[in-house]
Amino acid sequence: MKERWGSRAFNAGNLIVLAVLAAVTLFPIYYVFVISFVTPEQYYRGGLILFPEKWTLESYRYLLSTGSFVRASGVSAFLATVGTACSLIVTASFAYALSRKRMPGRKTLLLLVLLTTLLNPGIIPHYLLVRDIGLINSLWSLIIPSLTSGWYIFLMKGFFDSVPASLEEAAKIDGSSDIGVWAKIILPLSMPSIAAVGLFYAVGYWNTFFNAVLYINDAGKYPLQVLLQNMLIDSSTALGGDGSDLSLEKRMPPEMLKMAAVIVATVPILFVYPFLQKHFTKGVMLGSVKE
After folding, report:
1. Neighbour tally for 75: CB within 10 Å
2. From CA 116, how far away is CA 111, in angstroms rounded?
3. Which of 95, 135, 221, 277 is in Cβ range 3.0-4.6 Å of 156 for a Cys bridge?
4. Phi and psi of 210, rounded to 5°?
5. What membrane topology is given (predicted)?
6. Contacts for 14 with CB less than 8 Å, ≥ 6 apart
7. d(CA 36, CA 261)
8. How many helices (H) and strands (E) does the chain have?
9. What are phi and psi of 248, to 5 degrees?
């Protein structure tokens, strides 16, 4: 009985501690969500707002009426889609080539890829390289330097190594080429790894900030995260300077605009996770059991 009651007390204590930690973690997110839906009058009254007196979309209408925010959202969407597609093609093809033991120079290439995960040339060499190839102030400067990663190459290589070699041999007997084996057999079997790595790439491109600050000079090409940073510094400047491009006559409280912008920037990525959850589960288990 003592052990049973002690175990219950321990479990109850764990639940209380975890509940408190969950509340502390989720409250800022809840507060951002609530503030983005309150009316300006309720916000100006001050105090801690736990629930809107009247739900309103004024902040979102005001935000989406600005040309700068719409352009920044389009830039981030372009980076997340085109950048992720290009990165997956390069990473998957290179990782598959490195997983084939018959590839000439395979060990040397593996060593070079490993060195990229250990050594970083720094900001200045990166900037000079991007400048010399003529990508300054181009959206491709946010994609090409981040086109692949040594860590993701090794991750996908591990998935490709777990695919039985007999499948490739059977396809070769049927007359398939190396590219055909990769496109028709290896890639469909490796969808869990592709989905997982693709999500990592998409989140990285969607949250692009530092590279945009370095390489982009035109404010019209800023991605969403740079615009959000500008909003934290000066809401009126970030969203349209003197407010001439705003459709609403009354300017919204800057804090409400910031909260609404954070929600708009977060929701697209949150919607992607449920659709890829099953692939994550398969990806974790792939290669863990030998048959």
Report:
1. 22
2. 9
3. 95
4. -65, -45
5. Multi-pass membrane protein
6. none
7. 8
8. 16, 0
9. -95, 140
Look up residue 117 and give its two tokens.
């995960």
Q: How far is CA 72 from CA 135, 245, 246, 253, 263, in A?
A: 19, 15, 16, 21, 15
C-alpha dihedral over 277, 282, 284, 290, to 10 degrees?
Answer: 170
Q: Is there a contact between 234 and 219 (Cβ–Cβ < 8 Å)?
A: no
> How far apart are the two ends of the chain, measured CA to CA in Å?
45
What per-residue string of b and e applies to 165-190 under the rule 16 or more CB within 10 Å gives b?
eeebeebeeeebeeeebbeebbbeeb
Show the tokens assigned to 202: 């998409």
Residue 162 has φ and ψ, to the nearest 5°, of -80, -10
> How many CA atoms does the CB half-sphere of 248 hold within 13 Å?
16
CA separation for the pair 107, 104 (Å, rounded): 8
**Global confidence as pTM:** 0.78
Distance CA 109, CA 207 (A): 30
CB-facing half-sphere around the CA of 223: CA atoms within 13 A: 27
The DSSP string of 147-168 is S--HHHHHHHHHHHHTS-HHHH
3-class SS shares of the chain: helix, strand, coil, % to 5: 75, 0, 25
8 A C-beta contact, residue 211 and residue 137: no
pLDDT tens figures, 93-152: 899 888 888 888 888 998 999 888 888 888 898 899 999 999 999 999 999 988 998 889
Determine the Cα–Cα distance for residues 284 and 195; give it in Å rounded to an integer.
Answer: 12
Query: Any idea what the Cα angle at residue 50 is, between residues 48 and 54, rounded to 5°?
Result: 110
